[in-house]
UniProtKB/TrEMBL annotation:
GO terms for biological process: DNA recombination; DNA repair; SOS response. Transmembrane segments: none annotated. This is DNA repair protein RecN. It comes from the Bacteria. It comes from Neotamlana nanhaiensis. The keyword DNA repair applies. Residues 148-229, 318-369 form a coiled coil. NCBIfam families: recN.
Length: 550
C-alpha cells in the first residue's frame, strides 16, 4: 500500500507531503483544483515519461517520492529479476532535472523506466474511464477468469511446458533448414572427405618426408662429403685418429709422473673415444645411403600431394588437415543421420504436445467451472448499480493451436438491456456502463487475489442517489482487503471513506499553488456540506453531511 507521497516543484505544486492509511481514502476538490496534477505526479512514480514542462520552477529539479508497504504483494521474485534491492518499506523516487533529463530510483538504486513500469503496475492501479477499455481486451478477461479459477499453478506449469515445446519446434525447424542446406553440400563434403581419407594422413610425417627428400635428392654430394670425412679421420698415415692415437700413447707415459699429466691424458683419451664414435657413425651413414630413384619419386609425389591439400584447405600443417578431415566426417555423418534426428525431434514434439493438451484441458476445465459464478456475481453487482437487466454471455471454445495462456478461445459478450442483443463489451456498453462493470470486476477480484492499491478517478461520474451510495459501499467493502482511493465529486461516496483528503488551490505571494491536506472530522463535515449545497452552506446541508458521516 501507498504510505506516503512527497512532491516538490511539479506543475502547480511547490512542496507537498502527505501520509496515507490503509482502508478507503477519499480525495475531493473543486474542478481545476489540481486532482489531475496529483495523479500526474503519481504516474511519474509508476514509470510515465516526464518532460521539462513538468517543472514548476525550471531552474530547480522536481522530486517525487513515494513509500510503499509491499509485504503482502509477494514481489521478491520481481525484485530479484529486475535486480532491485528488496525492502518491505520500498521507496521510489523520480527526479526531473532542469536539463530535462529524468532519473528513477528504487530504494536508492538507479533503475530504468521499463523496470519501473513493471514494478508500478504491481503497486498502484489508477482507474479512470480511459482504463475501462482494458475490459475489452481478451487477455485481461482471461486474467479475471483465471484469478477466480485459481489457475496460477497450472498456468505456470503450462507456460513452462509451452516454452519447452517452442524450443523443440525451433530445433526441429533448424534441423529441416540444416538438412536442406546439408543436402546441397553433402556431395562436395563427401568428395573432400574421401580425398583426405585416401591420403592416409599422419600428423608428424611432413618434416620426415622433407628430410628424406633432401637426402635422396642430394645423395651424390652427401656420399662425397661422407667419404672425405671418413678419409680425414681414418687414413692410416695422415688420419686424425692415427695422430690422436700417437698423442694418447705419449701422454699415457707422462701420466704416472703427475696428476696434471694424467688429466691431460684422460682428456685426450675422451677426445679419441668421441672422434672414434664419429668415425663409426660416418661409416654407418655411408652404408645406409641408398641411391633409390624410385623412392625419390614416391617421396616427391607424397610431398606434392600433401602441399596441394594444405594449399586447397588453406592450412600449413598436416595436423590441421587431420582436424578438417574429422570435421568433414562429422558433417557427412550428421547429414546421413538427419532423417533419424528429424524423426526423433518429431517424436519429442508429439510427446510434449500430448502433455500440453493435458495441462490445457485442466486449465479449461477450471475456467468453465468458474464462469457461471463470475457471471452471477457480476450481474448481481451491476443490478445493484442501476443496471438490473445487465447480462453476460461468457463462453469458452477449444482453439486449434497452443496459445500463451492455454488452448481456449474466449467470447465475452454483454447486453445492457432486456431483450437486447449480446455484443462485445466495447460495442455494447457505454463509458459509464464500462466504469460500473470495471468496478464490479475489481470488487469480485478483491475476494480472490491480493490486488494492488487502486485509485478510482471519478468512476462515479454520471451517477447519483442510491447508485452512487452503492458504488461507495462496494469500494468500502473492497478496502477491507486492499487500499482503495476514490477521487469523487459525490458526497455519498465521500462520506464512506476512512480518511478524507482535499485538493485545493491557494495563492502564495501572488503565485497559485496546488496543495493536498487531510481533513479532520469537522473539516469533513464542511467539505461534504459544500459538496451537497455549495459554498454557502445551509443548516440542512450541514445536518445532511453529519448524517452521511454517521
Amino acid at each position: 500500500m501507498l504510505t506516503s507521497l512527497s512532491i516538490k516543484n511539479y506543475a502547480l505544486i511547490d512542496h507537498l507531503k502527505v501520509d496515507f492509511n490503509d482502508g478507503f481514502s477519499i480525495i475531493t476538490g473543486e474542478t481545476g483544483a489540481g486532482k489531475s496534477i496529483l495523479l500526474g505526479g503519481l504516474s511519474l512514480i509508476l514509470g510515465k515519461r516526464a518532460d521539462l514542462s513538468s517543472l514548476k520552477d525550471d531552474t530547480k529539479k522536481c522530486i517525487i517520492e513515494a513509500v510503499f508497504n509491499i509485504e503482502k504483494y509477494k514481489l521478491e521474485a520481481l525484485f530479484a529479476a529486475e535486480d532491485f534491492d528488496y525492502e518491505a518499506q520500498t521507496i521510489i523516487r523520480r527526479e526531473i532535472l532542469p536539463s530535462g533529463k529524468s532519473r528513477a530510483f528504487v530504494n536508492d538504486s538507479p533503475v530504468n523506466l521499463s523496470s519501473l513500469q513493471l514494478l508500478g503496475e504491481r503497486l498502484i492501479d489508477i482507474h479512470s474511464q480511459h482504463q475501462t477499455m482494458q475490459l475489452t481486451d481478451n487477455d485481461y478477461q482471461f486474467q479475471v477468469i483465471d484469478a477466480l479459477a485459481k489457475n496460477d499453478a497450472v498456468l505456470k506449469q503450462y507456460k513452462q511446458e509451452l516454452k519447452v515445446l517452442k524450443k523443440l519446434e525451433k530445433e526441429y525447424k533448424e534441423l529441416l533448414n540444416f538438412q536442406a542446406e546439408a543436402i546441397k553440400e553433402h556431395d562436395y563434403n563427401t568428395f573432400l572427405l574421401n580425398e583426405l581419407v585416401e591420403a592416409n594422413l599422419v600428423e608428424d610425417e611432413l618434416q620426415a618426408l622433407e628430410e628424406e627428400y633432401e637426402t635422396l635428392n642430394n645423395i651424390e654430394n652427401i656420399q662425397e662429403k661422407l667419404s672425405e670425412a671418413e678419409q680425414l679421420l681414418g687414413d692410416e698415415q695422415m688420419g686424425a685418429l692415427t695422430a690422436l692415437t700417437t698423442l694418447k700413447h705419449a701422454l699415457q707415459k707422462l701420466s704416472s709422473y703427475s696428476i696434471k699429466y694424467e688429466d691431460v691424458y684422460k682428456r685426450a683419451e675422451s677426445s679419441f673415444i668421441e672422434l672414434d664414435d664419429i668415425f663409426s657413425e660416418i661409416t654407418n651413414l655411408q652404408e645406409a645411403l641408398d641411391a633409390d630413384p624410385n623412392r625419390l619419386e614416391v617421396v616427391d609425389a607424397r610431398l606434392k600431394m600433401l602441399h596441394n591439400l594444405m594449399q586447397k584447405h588453406v592450412v600449413s600443417e598436416v595436423a590441421e588437415l587431420v582436424e578438417i578431415r574429422n570435421q568433414l566426417q562429422e558433417k557427412v555423418a550428421v547429414t546421413e543421420n538427419l532423417d533419424d534426428s528429424i524423426k526423433t525431434k518429431q517424436s519429442q514434439i508429439a510427446s510434449k504436445e500430448k502433455e500440453l493438451n493435458t495441462v490445457a484441458g485442466e486449465i479449461s476445465k477450471l475456467r468453465k467451472a468458474i464462469v457461471p459464478e463470475l457471471k452471477s456475481q457480476l450481474e448481481t453487482i451491476l443490478s445493484s448499480l442501476g443496471m438490473p437487466n445487465a447480462q453476460f454471455k461468457i463462453e469458452l471454445s477449444s482453439a486449434t493451436t497452443f496459445l500463451p495462456n492455454g488452448k481456449d478461445e474466449l467470447t465475452f459478450l454483454f447486453s445492457a438491456n432486456k431483450g437486447g442483443n449480446f455484443n462485445e463489451l466495447k460495442k455494447a456498453a457505454s463509458g459509464g456502463e464500462l466504469s460500473r462493470i470495471m468496478l464490479a470486476i475489481k470488487s469480485v477480484l478483491a475476494n480472490y487475489i491480493q490486488l494492488p492499491t487502486i485509485m478510482f478517478d471519478e468512476i462515479d461520474t454520471g451517477v447519483s442517489g442510491e447508485i452512487s451510495n452503492k458504488m461507495g459501499d462496494i469500494m468500502l467493502q473492497m478496502s477491507k482487503t486492499m487500499q482503495v482511493f476514490s477521487i469523487t465529486h459525490l458526497p455519498q461516496v465521500a462520506a464512506k471513506g476512512h480518511s478524507h483528503f482535499k485538493v485545493f488551490k491557494e495563492d502564495v505571494n501572488e503565485v497559485t499553488q496546488t496543495n493536498l491536506v487531510k481533513l479532520n472530522h469537522d473539516e469533513r463535515i464542511v467539505e461534504i456540506a459544500q459538496m451537497l449545497g455549495g459554498i454557502e452552506m445551509s443548516s440542512s446541508a450541514i445536518a445532511h453531511a453529519k448524517d452521511l458521516l454517521n
